[in-house]
Amino acid sequence: MKEPRTIVFDVSGVIDCRNEIAFLITADNDHVTIAGETSPGGVAIYNYRNFVIRGEAEQVVVRFLRFHGTRIHLRNDPDGLLIWHAKNVIVDHCSFAGACDETISGSDVENVTIQSTGFDESRKVKAHSDYFNNKGQWHNYGGLYSRARNVSIHHCLFAHQSKRNPLVGKNSYVEAVNNVIYNYSNSQQTWGAAGEGLKIAHCYFKLGPDRRKRPIPVRDNVLAISGCVSKERDGSPGPAVDDLRKLGSLTLETIETADDAWDSVLDRSGALPHDATSARMVRETRDGNGRQGYQAAIDADRAAIKPGPLPKDSDKDGLPDAWELANGLDPAIGTDSRRSSPSGYSYLELYCHELATRLIAAAGSRR
């Protein structure tokens, strides 16, 4: 199906993919919004093989979903989310845990935003097919971006990822702003091949139990670091490696200090409300404990996803009857969700925005 559409949820709780693909989005089925905020109690996808956006796909939005990787090791070491040969993609308020390789990666991509999302404790396994003959390097990585143009990663939590938080390759332009990076270990924290473009601004770096080597290394990069805080340096400002003007101004309209980002990321990043895994990531980041690697606790965490009540939707257009009546619509007309409101957005877009705003506001009020 090629026409623009929005996927809404009338289910909640755990969806067990039994090691199959969760989503595969290509040019044949793109122009899609997956609106996890419409689930009455939240959705957690467990034991999935991978989630791939590829094949010249464009105009893809994914919001408020939780992904927990399979407990078995799979050949080809799938990422939590792989964006490959795609453009105009937004990932917002999602949580990814237990990936075999990188948590979220992009290759040959353009105009991608990953925001307020959890890069949570990927599995600590030997990489790629070498795993099966006990060779290769141990992998539990944040994200790898190569030939990636105009990629923004902001207000995300990278917890218990050894490195690549993120790693940026040649012919790329990536900005990482207002992220919290906790319990990384490898000195190759944020480096890539010569000729890359990576801007790191107002991020909060905090070492944990798996600490090693120096905190924020730089090697052969076109790299700018500004306004960061390094907790292992007693909260002192991080190094100003290069002037941001050399890579141009940041595209984000609103940028917080690293200290302010610490609170906003831990309160409101990831799929909301936080499930037990996301809550544990936040708690361990705040308290300075926990270890790298996919924890057995994730299997117990799934019990914490409880289905919620489904609001009545008589015409099955994705808009609850009560919301339609409150907004001057007819609950018996099944085309209202596609109609344009006076604001220019469809009524379904307005409803989804209202749900998302409510979830974010509730998360910010819990502290």
From TrEMBL:
One of its GO terms (molecular function) is metal ion binding. Residues 300-323 are annotated as: Disordered. Transmembrane segments: none annotated. Keywords: Glycoprotein, Metal-binding. The keyword Metal-binding applies. The keyword ATP-binding does not apply. This is Pectate lyase. It comes from uncultured myxobacterium HF0200_08J13. The lineage of its organism: Bacteria, Pseudomonadati, Myxococcota, Myxococcia, Myxococcales.
